[in-house]
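Quarterly update, task 2.4: zinc ion-bound model.
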Amino acid sequence: MDDTREQPEAHVDGLIAAGRFFSQQGWMPATTGDLSLRLDAGPMAITRAHSRKGELTPEDLMQVDLEGNVLSPGKQPSAGSFLHIILYRRSDHIGAVLHTHSANAIALSRRHGGDFLELQGYDLLAEVEGANPHGGALALPVYRRTPEIPRLAAQVDEDLHGHPGIPGFLVEGHGFYTWGRDLASARRHVEIFEFLFECELKMRGPLP
Ligand SMILES: CSC[C@@H](O)[C@H](O)C(=O)COP(=O)(O)O
Ligand SMILES: [Zn+2]
């Protein structure tokens, strides 16, 4: 065995595995979405812009600090990296941020017609970190999409300041963001909400 060979770090494996799994589910078609986690040293590891999330290699990951400085020379971070930064800055309890583009999340975001998507009546809601242990109701903000990421990020930051328990949000016609204390927790949130989006679309039935 070659002992001099560099071993990939655990966070690299974790992000690559998450990208592969989400893509297999159809939640990150083509190059859409982005994945990040907070490294112990402070910066985040995030996917590079335009990377195919189902086929990530260690080269597709890079480090960016929470001031937005690129720490991996020659690499361009995801266009949405400022949203990840805002979330990490907002709470020390956020250790990973995941952004998906599933058909269900996007269809629901376009159909709901309001500023919040209210989910209620699902026992699975009790599995969301920080949620009411009996399920109850949970409202996810739905933001209008905009090419102005700093503006969207400022709105997200303000809403989370007022409501620190928000576990994710939709961007209308675009996709879904969620997070967790670590990558495993954030992954669980993606799975829970993607399942609930499917339930919710079934409950609402076909368009008239
Ligand atoms: C609203 S932020 C833009 C990006 O997050 C984009 O939507 C996306 O999903 C992937 O972009 P990319 O820059 O290739 O990582
Ligand atoms: Zn996106």
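Highlight for this quarter: The radius of gyration is 17 Å.
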